Each structure stands twice: as C-alpha cells, then as structure tokens.
Amino acid sequence: MPRSRNWALLAAWASMNRVSPPWWMTWGGSMPRRSTASPALNSDRQTTAAARRISSRQRPGPLLEPLRAAASDNVRIATDLTDAQMRWAYGHARALVAASHEDFGLTPLEAGAFGRPTLALRAGGYLDTIAEGVNGAYFDEPTADAIRAAVVADRDTTWDEAAIRAHVEAFSPNRFVERVRAAAARLAS
Q1: Residue 32 has pLDDT above 80, yes or no
Q2: Which of 33, 35, 122, 170 is deepest in the core (most CB within 10 A)?
C-alpha cells in the first residue's frame, strides 16, 4: 500500500472514531523470528478503547495479515510510515510499548527524544537505555497480561518530559564522542 494512502487510512480511522492522541504505541515487525506484536495487540482485548489505543508500525511480513485480523477495534496497524509520520506518532503517543527482545534498546531512545517514556520487557538492550522511573517502566514477560498491567499502571504515572530527554541525551553521538575522547586522554596520560 502506498505510504500516503496508508497514512490517510490511519488518519481517517482516528477522526471517524474520535481517537486523538495520546495513545500507546508499539513499533515492531511481523516476521516470525522477532515478532512480539501479537501479545501487545492482544493485551488490548481486555482494556477498554477509551483507555488504550495503539498505533503500531509493522514491517510487512508473513504475520502482518494475521496480526491485522487479530487486532481489536481500537488498534490500528500502520506499515511503511515515513520518518515524518513516525516523528508525529512518537510525538503524540502516551508511551512506547516495547515487548520485543531488542539487542541495543534503541526504540526507547527514539521515544525519549520526544519526551515519551517506554514500557518495556525487562531484557536485552532495554536494560541499558531505560532508567526505571525516569524514562520508562518494565514488565517481566512478553505476554498480554503483563503488557496490560504495565499500560494500566502507566495511566496513573506522571512522566517528566525534560528528565526523559535529559536521560536520552546521555546516548547522543556527541556524548559518545566526549566519552571516547576522555577515555583516550586517560590512556594517553
């Protein structure tokens, strides 16, 4: 589906159903090896539409149509979003839900650049990029029940956007270069 048409369908759905930001967003794939989108989408089945809306960016793959078929009425799966569309989605999300096994924990940094927290699986790279209570919270297993509990708890959490952005800044390219130069200077002296 062409990008503009896909985005237009998402915008039309949001307008027709009076869905306005914020929503909980998940960003994932639809390839069998790495997909944990199904538990995130299924977590929505027992959470009311007023409480939970997920904008989900899926990479097209063999699980995409089954995921679409399984999604509840208040879930929309958008594929092939442009960078600008992703920035808009992050900027209007309540939080990112990250249930995959991510090696480097980059998606919480993307969300954090917009002052958005991440509700993440307590594993992998998320352990390096999420400071619990600062830029996110954890759940312990990638199941619908665990994700639902994290989303419900997040509804009553007040996040400090400036603190989230400050935490994410520690992972910026400039800070990385500063740390490498400082380490090199220590070694040279």
Answers
A1: no
A2: 35
d(CA 24, CA 136): 13
Give CA separation, 145 vs 139, 154, 180, 182, in Å: 10, 14, 42, 45
Domain boundaries, the chain: 3-188
- Cis peptide upstream of residue 108 (ω within 30 degrees of 0): no
Question: To the nearest 10°, the Cα dihedral for 61, 55, 159, 107?
Answer: 20
Beta strands per DSSP E along 53-163: 54-59, 75-79, 95-98, 118-121, 136-139
Confidence of residue 72 (pLDDT cuts 50, 70, 90): confident
114 alpha carbon, distance to own chain's centre: 12
Report pTM: 0.76
CATH number of the 3-188 domain: 3.40.50.2000
- Mean pLDDT over 115-142 rounds to 97
DSSP SS3 for 134: coil
